[in-house]
Amino acid sequence: MALHIVNGPNLNLLGQREPEKYGHASFESYIETLRTTFPELELHHFQSNVEGELINHLHDIGFASDGIVLNAGGYTHTSVALRDAVAAITAPVMEVHITNVHAREEFRHTSLLSPVCKGVICGLGLEGYAAAIRALKG
């Protein structure tokens, strides 16, 4: 089973960016934890700060992947184009947020992606990625 983790803007700064909210671990170190936790899976990771690159990547993987874990960062709340890309592909997508977006600024309370995703996980820190993988595994 091949699953893809797609991270959006500023997630390349995990471990450095606001560690009180996002923790001290980089995603590069955490992906190794996920690979150890789920050795039966083929886990792929892609990160971009560029909306169009995220859309192109979803198009590239979205018809062959067994599932996608998507943390679109700030694009979650602003990108109709990213929402349309998720709606267009056949792979199931789990939306993930490291923080509890509902306990933050009001503009983060609305996700354009949620209606076209299989589910949403927020507020579990990096462990939210593992929860999303479990949900996709079934």
Give the strand tally.
5
- First-last Cα distance: 11 Å
CATH architecture tag: 3-Layer(aba) Sandwich
Question: Given the structure, what is the number of helices?
Answer: 5
Report the top-level CATH class: Alpha Beta
Q: Provide the spatial order of strands within the biggest beta sheet.
A: 2-1-3-4-5
User: Radius of gyration in whole Å, from Cα?
Assistant: 14 Å
Strand content: 15-25%
- The helical percent reads 25-40%
Name the structural class: alpha/beta
Low-pLDDT residue intervals, each spanning 5 or more residues: none
General description of the model:
- The longest helix has 11 residues, at 27-37.
- The chain has a 5-stranded parallel sheet with strand order 2-1-3-4-5, with helices on both faces.
- It has helices spanning 19-22, 27-37, 51-61, 80-88, 127-137, and strands spanning 2-7, 42-47, 67-71, 93-97, 119-122.
- Helix 4 links the parallel strand 3 and strand 4 (93-97).
- The chain has 138 residues and is an alpha/beta fold.
Jot down its keywords:
5 strands; Rossmann fold; 138 residues; single chain
Secondary-structure map:
Blueprint: E1 2-7, H1 19-22, H2 27-37, E2 42-47, H3 51-61, E3 67-71, H4 80-88, E4 93-97, E5 119-122, H5 127-137
Describe what is shown at a glance.
With 138 residues, the protein is α/β, with parallel strands linked by helices. The protein contains five helices and five strands; from the N terminus they run βααβαβαββα. It has one domain: Rossmann fold.
